[in-house]
Design brief:
Layout: E1 2-7, E2 13-20, E3 26-30, H1 41-44, H2 48-51, E4 53-57, H3 77-90, E5 97-101, H4 104-115, E6 122-126, E7 131-132, H5 143-146, H6 149-152, H7 157-170, H8 178-189, H9 193-198, E8 204-205, H10 207-211, E9 217-222, H11 230-239, E10 243-248, H12 255-258, H13 260-276
Parallel strand pairs: 3-4, 3-5, 5-6, 6-9, 9-10
Antiparallel strand pairs: 1-2, 2-4, 7-8
Helix pairs in contact: 3-4, 7-8
Length: about 290
């Protein structure tokens, strides 16, 4: 494992870790709202590292990256896109596959809007969020998020802890093992409430970006996701002609935790396909449509 300090958008210091085969093609993992790189433990400690260079970022305001409290550090899409570009450029990643969980769907689209697809091979949206506005609440974004967001953005510590505990529990269909739950809860609590709130002050519509993607896209989504509803995944499929779907039954917002073996196999196949330029879709249980 190697640790890197990357200078991101606006000069912010970003914490990045990497594992695996440094001479192999890259998979670049980007976590969701109020998380950090530790959520990808079942991936970077897996056999994926034998054939890929695995890189995981702590988003600005999260984990071990710098976390200024001013909202202006989190509301400009150019900053988010600049962070992704900085990691790719400063670590010399070779046409990585971007894997974006939840809020990282916004971050990846921010990158695409400014930088396009020339430097990447493909994208795996995992419970990916692509639309953020009032009409999305209750239709695309569900109670697993909405029921806890007020407490999660409160400066009152007891209220904050209760909201985050319930949010983490709601991210999975079945209860996580105790150690995994404790790591997830601790990772969430590291993020200041003001940062969590700032991330939600944007109004986002990425339909135009998604419609123009010209690299392979895999949409991975739990059928029982109450945080980012399956309707968000269906919307992505409707507006992104490049996308195919992998639906996970009896799975919530974190397929990479709840069904790690299947997720890793599908990601392996998808990354091989995307980075090979093959005209044939990957095997490994990826279903088209729905």
């Amino acid at each position: 494992m190697q640790v890197h300090n990357i200078v991101g958008g606006g000069g912010l210091r970003l914490h990045v870790r990497e594992w695996g085969n440094q001479d192999a093609p890259s998979i670049f993992f980007i976590h969701g709202w109020s998380q950090n790189h530790l959520c990808w433990k079942n991936q970077y400690e897996s056999a994926l590292g034998n054939d890929f260079r695995l890189v995981a970022l702590d988003l600005r305001g999260h984990g071990m990256s710098d976390a200024p409290l001013g909202a202006e550090h989190y509301t400009e899409p150019q900053l988010w896109g600049g962070d992704v570009a900085a990691v790719i450029n400063q670590l010399d990643l070779r046409t990585p596959v971007l894997v974006g969980w939840s809020y990282a769907g916004f971050v990846i689209c921010d990158y695409l809007r400014v930088h396009g697809t020339a430097a990447i091979a493909g994208i795996n949206f995992v419970g990916g969020a692509i639309t953020l506005n009032k009409s999305a609440f209750g239709t695309l974004i569900g109670p697993g998020f909405l029921d806890h967001v007020i407490g999660a953005t409160s400066d009152d510590l007891p209220r904050n802890i209760e909201a985050i505990r319930n949010f983490v529990r709601g991210c999975t269909y079945s209860q996580l093992p105790a150690e995994e739950f404790e790591i997830a809860l601790s990772s969430n609590m590291v993020v200041p409430a003001k940062v969590r709130a700032a991330l939600l002050r944007r109004e986002i519509d990425n339909d135009d970006v998604l419609a123009g993607i010209d690299v392979p896209v895999l949409m991975t989504h739990g059928e029982a996701d109450t945080v980012i509803l399956p309707a968000m995944g269906r919307h992505l499929l409707a507006v992104c002609p490049a996308a195919t779907a992998s639906w996970y039954p009896r799975t919530g917002h974190a397929p990479f935790l709840e069904s790690a073996a299947r997720f890793n196999t599908e990601l392996y196949n998808f990354a091989r396909y995307a980075q090979s330029g093959s005209a044939e879709a990957p095997s490994g249980g990826i279903s088209l449509g729905r």
